[in-house]
Write a structure and sequence with these properties.
Elements lengths: L3 E4 L6 E4 L1 H9 L9 H15 L22 H20 L5 H23 L9 H9 L4 H11 L6 H24 L4
Antiparallel strand pairs: 1-2
Length: 188
């Protein structure tokens, strides 16, 4: 990897995108910057000025703005979507499978498809699935197998040491809980 020169879409000037910045952007799942640092700073200043309190216009006035849309974090957005998908699949699976098996099939299928989706949109500039959500799918009871299959099948997150360390810690905790449950179930 080496420094890149990018042309700003705002002002047309060329700017340097260093290796350190590239690493920072990639680790956080951010898209390649399209604007130079000066244009980005101008946009931030405009956003702050826009958010400053303004005297309200009368209700019927054309000067009255529509309410601003609130920001929903990717963690909440993807977390809620995947939780609902898993629960819906499990609920539908209960018609065919026993409840525990329906849950396991649902959570592993959602984990597999989520890893594939995140790999598919990587590098496109679209909103990526946060690592916390990917690890959360693995941590969901029984979801580690689907997450592992997604990592191996799509070659996704397999070279990120920190991610793999957290994933295997989750797997170790699940195995320990499973063994403890097997040992203690007869005593209860």
């Amino acid at each position: 990897m080496s420094d890149e020169t990018i042309t700003c879409v705002g002002c047309g000037r060329r700017f340097l995108w260093s290796v350190g910045e590239q690493r920072f952007y990639r680790e956080r799942g951010l898209a390649v910057p399209r604007r130079c640092p000066a244009c980005r700073a101008d946009a931030r200043r405009a956003m702050v000025a826009d958010a400053a309190p303004v005297a309200r216009a009368p209700a019927g006035s054309p000067l009255r703005r529509a309410p601003r849309r609130t920001f929903v974090s990717p963690l909440r957005r993807y977390g809620a979507l995947l939780a609902m998908s898993t629960l819906a699949l499990a609920a539908g699976g209960i018609l065919v499978f026993p409840p525990l098996l329906a849950w396991l099939v649902a959570v592993n299928l959602v984990a597999l498809l989520t890893y594939g989706y995140d790999k598919m949109i990587a590098g496109t500039g679209r909103l990526r699935v946060p690592e916390a959500v990917l690890l959360g799918l693995a941590a969901a009871v029984g979801g580690a197998a689907g997450a592992l299959l997604g990592m191996l099948l799509f070659q996704h997150k397999t070279s990120k040491g920190a991610f793999l360390a957290r994933y295997w810690a989750i797997v170790a905790a699940q195995v320990a809980l499973g063994v403890a449950w097997l040992l203690l179930r007869d005593r209860l």
